[in-house]
Design a protein that fits this description.
9 helices, mainly alpha, 2 domains, 77% helix, disordered N terminus
Length: 248
């Protein structure tokens, strides 16, 4: 009996190990079974695909037409930004997400033996746009900056065109101070934007003539604002020193 108990005790660890291995294999089998069941019920999300197609429909039409005509693509960037109004990093992230979503949905369609040609073409088009934007980040950033300049200064540009006193419009550019103090703050804003415009002027290649021309036009408008501050009656009566590298 003692020997039998000894032999039994020696055999128990093996039996326990075998039972543990059996449980692990059973769990793995159940896991893969459930996973296969989930995938068997997975279908392509037609609504999500149509939303992606609708989101880029107008800009892709412009982009594709320009490519077919071998036209200058510089006009594409302003139209793209106008529609999405996103920073470079935001738009790149969004495009990347949609491209990956398309790739995943195409795999599901192929598994279901359904036609995925339409979505495959869309993914290729979005990939082309993605690469184009990545290559022209500077130009895209300039387009965003130009739009910000127009939004910020448009009221003052119009006021000067109508020969009105710019002091009356300081609040339109976010300046709370009145009189000379307000003009000093206005000068700081003008010089800051002029500096950035000047930087872009040197960095933009002449191939991007439309964007470069817009940059120059906005520079002239800002110089007019700067001169309006410089020659304002309130400025003339003081020792206001204005350090500027731009012509009057």
């Amino acid at each position: 009996m003692f020997l039998g108990c000894g032999m039994m005790s020696q055999g128990m660890p093996w039996l326990l190990n075998w039972g543990s291995m059996f449980q692990k294999k059973l769990k793995v089998s159940i896991f893969w079974g459930l996973l296969a069941l989930n995938f068997s019920w997975m279908h392509a999300d037609d609504v999500a695909l149509e939303k992606i197609a609708s989101r880029y429909q107008s800009v892709l039409k412009i982009f594709t037409t320009m490519h077919q005509k071998d036209a200058d693509l510089q006009a594409f960037l302003p139209k793209f930004f106008t529609q999405f109004n996103l920073s470079f990093s935001e738009v790149i992230q969004k495009l990347n997400q949609d491209i990956h979503r398309l790739r995943a949905e195409i795999k599901i369609l192929n598994r279901e033996k359904k036609s995925a040609q339409k979505w495959s073409d869309l993914r290729k088009q979005l990939t082309s746009v993605y690469k184009f934007l990545k290559k022209h980040r500077l130009q895209y950033d300039v387009v965003i900056f130009h739009q910000a300049i127009k939004n910020r200064w448009n009221v003052l540009f119009q006021a000067l065109a109508q020969e009105q006193d710019i002091v009356k419009f300081l609040g339109c550019v976010g300046i709370d101070q009145k009189g000379l103090d307000g003009l000093k703050q206005l000068m700081k804003l003008v010089e800051k934007d002029l500096y950035k415009i000047n930087t872009y002027e040197h960095r933009l290649h002449t191939d991007w003539i439309d964007i470069k021309l817009t940059n120059y036009v906005l520079k002239i408008e800002l110089i007019r604002v700067r001169n309006a501050v410089l020659f304002h009656p309130l400025s003339k009566k003081t020792t206001l020193k204005l350090s500027s590298n731009y012509p009057r």
